[in-house]
Amino acid sequence: SGPNHSMLVGSVALPALVLVALAPHTPDLSRTRRSPVPHAQLSSPLASAATPSSSSDHDILLRAARGEQVSRTPVWLMRQAGRYMAAFREFSDKYPFRMRSETPDIAIELSLQPWHAFGTDGVIMFSDILTPLPALGVEFDVVKGTGPIISDPLRSMEAVLAMTPLDDPEAKLPFIRTILGDLRKETDGKTSLLGFVGAPFTLVAYAVEGKANRHCIHTKTMMQKNPEILHAALNHFADAIGQYACYQIESGAQVIQFFESWAHHLGPTQFEIYAKPYADRAMQYVRERHPNVPVMYYANGGSSYLGLQRDMACDVISLDWACDMREARKTLGEGRLVQGNVDPTVLLGSEEQISCAVADCISKAGGHGHILNVGHGVLQGTPEDAVRTFVQAAKDTPLPE
User: Fold this and answer.
1) Which of 99, 242, 348, 366 registers the highest number of CB atoms within 10 A of its CB?
2) CA 178, 184, 187 angle in degrees (round to 5)?
3) What is the pLDDT of residues 257-272, one digit of tens each?
4) How many CA atoms, within 13 angstroms, populate the side-chain half-sphere of residue 383?
């Protein structure tokens, strides 16, 4: 059934979803999906790797995200598909980002690499939070060494009103259904598949800035001088992101993460006005349409106002690395499910240091309602063996009594 637009209309904007996890499979790159890249060029060392076998833990991440008691702490990593992996660089060195993320054969292969290599409890779709922007009339490109660039930033009411509704994601973003659908088929009964979206504030701020900006200066100036433009854009994006997240679920995602990647640009009051209500609206839309699909919310740099996230319309709060896990659980309340939050630079340390950090985080989480993750994405230059150690340590560490 199509989106219930009446639930999305209002003076308050929806929040954004953030991450998409994809389920594992051994890629058969000779399949008949049409791709602009010759299949022969898509070979990689992992293409012939053994697919992790089914086990009783195959859905442990999904069950934990639903609040069920599990036998150990589930584990995956934000940005687990990335340039730190040699197999990933075989593609990133050859093909531009949007070709990689919008060509199903490539995106599926990159999504599965970490699961094949490390046995994570979730596969997250290789994509980008900006992927739906062109479907809304906001074009972007990714420049190597610079990042995403929006050549025509969103800085006037006329520009906001000229944006198009998402309406038919199947027509505008067909590759998403292929990627997630194939990942789900190949990972079903073996691991959990995550999808993700950018939260409304983060996407609007990126569209206003046009590129990463240390001070988010254009957006924060708009807050002071033309807040009505910002709210109009946030309303539009909240609607679209709620629909986009549902489209990912209907394509195969079992869990959805909303990424508020630019939360570190916001103070507590700004978060309450410009981020939280729109994220909540989007997430509530998703939860009403798909009540059995867990929704996660990650505010990068948002731990300084963690108390404001206590009542957000999500199932799991994903913590950044700048807060103590035990104190965070006290702030959020014992009933609130959490994810995180090992500092990703710990993965540059020794095996013993990584294992100790994992054990400390699991201990402080208290033995229930916790999914282990890093408190920010895996850093480029992280040794692959360190990620393997991180994942294995999570599996080997018993739950505290």
Assistant:
1) 242
2) 135
3) 999 999 999 999 999 9
4) 12
Tell me what the pLDDT averaged over the chain comes to: 89
**Residues 184, 112: contact at Cβ < 8 Å?**
no
Does residue 196 surpass a pLDDT of 80? yes
pLDDT of 367 higher than 60: yes
CA distance 157 to 141: 23
Burial track 200-211 (b if 16+ CB lie within 10 A, e otherwise): bbbbbbbbbbbe
3-state secondary structure of 142: strand
Q: For residues 240 and 131, is the Cβ–Cβ distance under 8 A?
A: no
101: which 2 tokens?
A: 């993320």
pLDDT of residue 53: 64
Residue type for 156, please? S
Whether residue 187 contacts residue 123, with contact meaning beta carbons closer than 8 Å, is answered with yes
Which element (helix H / strand E) includes 374?
Answer: strand 370-374
Give 334 or 259, the one with higher predicted confidence: 259
Whether the Cβ atoms of residue 321 and residue 340 lie closer than 8 Å to each other: yes
**pTM of the predicted model, to two decimals?**
0.88
- Among residues 93, 112, 98, which one has the least CA distance to residue 29? 112
CA pair distance 389, 393, nearest whole angstrom: 6
How much is the pLDDT for 37?
43
Give the separation between CA 124 and CA 108, rounded to whole angstroms: 10
CA 72/CA 60 separation, integer angstroms: 8
CA distance 260 to 305: 13
The phi and psi torsions of 247 (rounded to 5 degrees) equal -60, -40
